Every structure is written in structure tokens, then in C-alpha cells.
Amino acid sequence: MTGSRRRYNRIKIVLLEKEKTNIWLAEQLGVSSTAVSKWCTNRNQPTVETLFKISEILNVGVCELLVTK
Fold this sequence. Notes:
The protein is mainly alpha-helical. The chain has helices at about 10-15, 20-30, 35-40, 50-60, 60-65. Helix 2 packs across helix 3. The protein is globular and about 30 Å long.
């Protein structure tokens, strides 16, 4: 994607689908909402360990957080 359109990763999409916020996820993980925001806008990526925790919290498979359908 080019221009002003941002590429959102699957974490952001799944949060929207589950009607959850970045702040909610940050609280569940014990991290800052800034960290979650950076993951959702691809400015940073969670560790593999954190990715597994996110999948558990959101009740989705890790692959769903990594691969678009």
C-alpha cells in the first residue's frame, strides 16, 4: 500500500472483530497502550511469546494474527 493509507496488521483487525480496544488488550497483557498501538500500526512487533499470549486472550489461533485470509 502506498500513500496515506496505513497498513494495519491482523492484531488490529481481530481487536475490531472482537469489539475490543488497544487499551483493553494492553491491560490484559500488562503492557502500555502505546506498545499495543505500535503493534497495530506495524511500527513495532510483539515478541513471539507475546503473540501467543495475544492469541490466547483474543481466543484465536496464532496463524489468524499473522496471515490474512
